[in-house]
Amino acid sequence: MRLNGYVAFCSCSAVPCALRFKQKLLLSHCPVFGVHFSTSHSHAEENLAVLCLNDHSEAHSKKEIALTFTPDRVRAIRDEWVKAVKNQDARTILELAESKDWCRWDYINHQRLFELALSKEVDLHSSRFLGQLRSMNIVDTNGLLCEPSEWTGTKPVYHLYDFGSCIQLLAYTRDVLSKVLNDIDIIDISNRWSRTEISTLVQPGQFIACSGAYYFKKESSSNKGRNQFRRAYRQKGGILLEFPFDGWDCTSSTAWGSHLRGRRHVLAICLINKVTRDDKRFKLTGSCLAIGAHFSTQENGTNKY
């Protein structure tokens, strides 16, 4: 069961009723602008809330004096629930990145990352590495990356982290990425790889995360500086997800020269730009925000990334 494209748990309690009482969940209708379902007959998402059987009965009780789940309360807790579950997939990624030493980010789209950081008003001044990066003119007073040609000391050649203080820069950009991921809505389609689910969940302008086997190909002969154009795609079951990326934004020499070449199992986080379909194929075209490796777990009986 899904609402707004997200797996549905009961929105009536901090502890999901389905887990506490092993009950089924229902989509309950809420009055829209004071108009009851019996009059409006509206199945719109804004007229739905996820409730367990007990609370569904309570919400539709005819005993008005004893009624605790009033329409206003159901709508309020529904809105809180939707907000909480919208970024549950992003939280899973962050938890893995922070708790598993072997998880790594092999690619970060730095231009897109800092654009999002600015639009989300992310704090770029709290990193303990900021002072050292500022002293080398790697970041400016706003916390944004300076042009590598303006950096003091060794300058990168093959990829952005191809210089002596790359560890500090990577720690800084990873911190910014974590803050951005914590503030955007992401839908994990790794285990929803079907035309039916993807056509329902994925629209242009939506961030998605997808873990699986990808093919990486070079699109240009350049091996230095910006514009080392590469293409990545995942194709399975009549569905194609593809995106271009710049090898310059790889986060290590190993990522640049090995990890993001050929066939690799990775996690890609993309902003979907275009969705097209025909009788033979369902195609998603995106702009990649980040590519990570080893974001997989079988804990708690789930298959997250």
Give the helix/strand layout.
Elements: E1 2-3, E2 6-7, H1 17-21, E3 25-29, H2 37-40, E4 48-52, H3 53-59, H4 71-86, H5 88-99, E5 104-108, H6 110-119, H7 130-135, H8 166-181, E6 186-188, H9 195-201, E7 207-218, E8 229-236, E9 239-246, H10 253-259, E10 262-277, E11 282-293
Parallel strand pairs: 6-7, 9-11
Antiparallel strand pairs: 1-2, 3-4, 5-11, 7-8, 7-10, 8-9, 10-11
Helix pairs in contact: 6-8
Task: For this entry, give a set of tags.
305 residues; alpha+beta; OB fold (Dihydrolipoamide Acetyltransferase, E2P); two-stranded antiparallel sheet; globular
Notes on the protein architecture:
The structure is a single chain. The strands form three sheets. Strands 7-8-9-11-10 form a five-stranded mixed β-barrel. The chain has a two-stranded antiparallel sheet with strand order 1-2. The chain has a two-stranded antiparallel ribbon with strand order 3-4. 30% of the residues lie in helices and 26% in strands. The chain is α+β, with helices and mostly antiparallel strands and 305 residues long. It is built from ten helices and eleven strands. Among the domains are: 2-86, no CATH class; 90-94 and 184-301, OB fold (Dihydrolipoamide Acetyltransferase, E2P), CATH 2.40.50.
